[in-house]
Amino acid sequence: MKEHMEDEVTPLFTFGVIADIQYADKDNGYNFHHTRMRYYRNSLQILGHACRCWDVEEDPRRRPAFILQLGDVIDGYNRELGASERALRTVLQEFGDCAVPVHHVWGNHEFYNFSREELFQSGLNSRDKGEGEREENVNVGEKVREKFSSMEEVYAYHFSPAPNFRFIVLDAYDMSIIGRNQRSEKYKQSMTIILEHNPNEELNMPPSNIDALEGRYVKFNGGFSQEQLDWLDRVLNSADENKEKVVIASHIPIHPFSADYVCLAWNYDKILPILYSHKCVVCFMAGHDHDGGYFKDESGIHHLTLKGAIETPPLGDAFGTVFVYEDKMVLRGRGRISDRVMMFQ
Known about the structure:
6-stranded mixed beta sheet, alpha/beta, Purple Acid Phosphatase, chain A, domain 2
């Protein structure tokens, strides 16, 4: 068992984190490019072990207040096997052993198995655990009531697990050619975007280009609509005014130094300036790149990409527990997940 860092004081709150479980009841196999082994059944064992570890902590101040699941909870193979619903039930039952809320992020494999409408009706819709409507001071003397009506097809919400802290869940496939009805305007816009950059017939193959960043324009990625970016800016404005620290979660990473370029959000260059224009953002968490990654940018924002459970061999682990203090977050990793101290700017 990995030896962990000693905590200096009792944390304000704690949460569990796990990414890319991609469970399927099938034998081990390879990824799309046939270069990496995936352990489809073993990922469920990792989740089960994680839930037992999170649930065994007796001190309520150290027991996770919630679990952050960073997307790709079941594998796309389930659709071919006709087992999407059964696989999802199996994973959600495993999560059910944790006596705390689970905040689910949606990844590409969610959309390989279900339509956006089906996901909103499923147990992966944790938006009701957030704050869908609240009054916010946007300008002096002006109050605006924020509603989901303008973003009802976008899976994005925010919640506050403790005073002066806010978490935001983003929809990285808001702009995408997976999960969107092909007759919808966003699908047409997304297809235009990807075809402008990727000339390949197979759009899951990254374009061969001198600029390696162009590799992000593949079918298994997506991006954030202007509508969602404007919403994010409003929420961060409110957090600034209320002197909150903000953690943002998305399936797709947004900083080029925190993941392989082929795993970046299409319009990462549009969302980063929004984060930099606010003082409140302390961390951006993502999955998607199974090798994981980490980078602290010039604004002091920690970009943490969690390694995937799906590529963790039997007897290994890939999950973590984050202890949050006034001045830092301490990640205690298990197995492939490294310990990390992330100081707040």
